[in-house]
Structure of tRNA-specific 2-thiouridylase MnmA:
Amino acid sequence: MGSTQRLRVLAAMSGGVDSAVAAARIAEAGHDVTGIHLALSSNPQSYRTGARGCCTLEDSRDARRAADVIGIPFYIWDMAERFHHDVVEDFVSEYAAGRTPNPCLRCNEKIKFEAVLDRALALGFDAVATGHHARLSDGVLRRSVDEGKDQSYVLGVLTREQLAHAIFPLGDSTKAEVRAEAARRGLTVADKPDSHDICFIADGNTRAFLADRLGAEEGPIVDALTGQVVGSHEGAFGFTVGQRKGLNIDRPAADGRPRYVLSIEPVSNTVTVGPRASLEVRSIVGERPVWNGPVREPYEPMTCTVQLRAHGEVYGCRAQLSGDQLHIELDAPATGVAPGQGAVLYDGDVVIGSATIASAI
């Protein structure tokens, strides 16, 4: 969005320091800003609280106090039903299908930049501003200057139309600079710790959360090299590709080296394990591609880079669209590539597209 005209901006305020400073910057720039906090749980006590929190009653109060300090109107929008359907139920069903979803990525796509943006535009707002650490200019999404806090990966699912109505005011600042600015502005969240893990799993125990919804069912752990059953588990959904710890294996590998989860088969409830070398993949197929960058769709092989998980390593690759699939050939092997995660393509620090990983070999 351009900054020369006065815009009506909806500032999504999570209750954290980033979204508070983002709202303050937009208001100070002379735009007509309204703050909103998303109520994402019909029972907020069931979500994380305190330092590890997100989307709690404490967060809504922090967001309201920040809006008061900034001097902007503030409202709470109830998105609990939509969040439960599009994020929580999607999370459970993806694990049930043997995939490893990224709920933050899905929340950005379905809640913050679909449900919220649709409502904002319907109400006459020009844009939605968030505290994500990413740069956006003329509709082009780039990495944050703070590489350690960069969130362009979880924004890679956004369409060009959504990016055209988004503002990310923090992309040119480090996290330390944002905290210092919050303190100067008198925002009480200046020292509030960042939220971590999954906001809708109150105790952080993903396996127990899934077992409660999918039901525990004993299944085998199979060694890929020998075909032997080397252990058992209470549900394949409790594992992810690349996992090493908590495998409950009865006998060590012949070479004494650790085993890793290589694949998850939900129908037979089988977890297959093997050596780290067997995790290496060079070829990835992605589904539901989104092309949102400044270059054209690559119907011929295009040289670029790809990030395969949040804050993960970046790999050189060649990418090509074929129908509704994105084919990615890596220059060097990657490990722990899990179906269900996002593959986000970059040209330097510019996001050019993304897809959801369907398979990898």
